[in-house]
Design a protein that fits this description.
This protein is of the alpha/beta class and 158 residues long. It has helices at residues 17-20, 30-33, 52-67, 86-91, 110-120, 135-148; strands at 43-48, 74-78, 99-102, 123-128, 151-157.
Length: 158
Amino acid sequence: MQQFIHVPEQAQLPLFEAFLAQPVLPGLKASELARKHSDPELFSELSLRGAQGHCQNLLAPVLRELSEEDETRWLTLIAPPSSLTQAWLRDAGLNRERILLLQPRSNQSPLQLACEALRLGLSHTVVSWLGSVNATARQQLLRAATTGNAQSLNIRLG
């Protein structure tokens, strides 16, 4: 008669879970990013490729950190993908009291709305999903960010 020894299986951690426990962008603070109007780093891009769930898991800590800024201004999300619902924001631990979700009107492009939100200066960071940004659009976002003393972050999903 053979005896079987039961060895409990260890739960496998998702690939990036160890990284997600740490602040992804520890130096990313709106006050530092918008310290000078001439700062060329007022525009940033983050490109994510892969399964939607994995991309959202990588994006969550970035948005969470930005939503927890000590700023009195908003974190504004322009035209986020439909998968970034209120429930997802809550489950990802974002401070929803400091977030504005904006969709462009029928006569307005997401780029125009992002530039308007940046220019107004009511947001410390405006996160947009514009896809690939050409040099002209980048200059528009930079000018608007400079005017509003804000940070522009474009998320490119592949």
